[in-house]
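For the sake of transparency, this paper describes our internal protein records without simplification. The tokens are whole numbers drawn from a learned vocabulary of local backbone shapes. One such record is reproduced below, unchanged from the form in which we store it.

. . .
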Amino acid sequence: MSTYLAKKAAKQKVDSFLQPLLSDDESSDDDGSSTDNHPEDDEVEKQTPLQKLKTMTVYGVLMAGVGMSAAAM
């Protein structure tokens, strides 16, 4: 019985915390201000050579770390 009451109290507390968030989501859907994705919004900017180098360095360091972790096992 006590676990039932504790679960019920916890559920009510969670519901009270989530209620403002849920009501905001519903009101934003009803106001009709939807954001349509336009094709020009989906364009991806090309990386500069320096950005490519940084990206490859990060991937290399991560892969080395994974390899060293596997070797340590």
Observations:
- The mean pLDDT is 79.
- The first helix runs from residue 2 to 30.
- The two ends are 48 Å apart (CA to CA).
